[in-house]
Fold each of these.
Amino acid sequence: MTAITNPSPTLLAVQNIIAEVTGYEPGDIQPAFHFEDDLQLDMITDFPSVIKRVNQHFTTTFVAKELAIEIDTVDELVERVEDETELG
């Protein structure tokens, strides 16, 4: 896969958070990756761990069960975080 040029700070943070939970290298986690298909995240156990860390890092209040229904990819999570943090 092609490396992203000038990734956003939000993407970098989300990649690091996902890497902590999955064991992947942050640079190997691409924005288009699907949580279940590409990253093999269990949406019952692993995904809530990711969202908990996202909430701690960005001081957001996402509910993992709701997001699991609404988003599928790393990029969609990044967009949600950016939207939430811009609204403050």
Note: Residues 9-22 form the longest helix (14 residues).
Amino acid sequence: MKFAVKYLLWSFCFFAGSCSSQQDQAGRNSKSTGDTVKKTEVMLLNEQQLQHLITQRNGKLLFLNVWATWCLPCREEFPDLVKLAESYSKKEVEFIGLSVDYPDEIESKILPFLEQVPVSFPIYVQNFDDKEQAINFLNEKWSGAIPATFVYNAEGKQLHFILGQHSFEEFQQILQPLVP
């Protein structure tokens, strides 16, 4: 039963959007702001790469937010995540966004959203073969509902699993005791 519920929720996450042609590589976006050009790169991420990101911390905490462009709470939360990442930019915290949109929606949905809410942290798009395994890897108690945030220590141990939309202040209360 637990597997069925997780599978249905995760499947909904991936079948809620419309499909377009399959894209083999991550998309790139260039946005001009005055004399500078800011590039937002969106990269595909498989299960092994996700595991590597979590376990190879190089002495930094990891703040991993799982979101999607079609998820209204995710979209509403995103500006607070950008503000949080900027406020911790000189601290030992790495911020990563993991979209559960389809990989072929990078150009049509993800990059247009990121033009509206520019980010200073890496954005990945799930490219998982086994979505249930990925959900369980992140947290066995997680149903796959989003937004979901995971905070890991410098050794890759999960310290917090935060489900649902939260504010800058709520996230800051979680991070402050962890960051010297």
Note: Residues 1-37 have pLDDT under 50 and may be disordered.
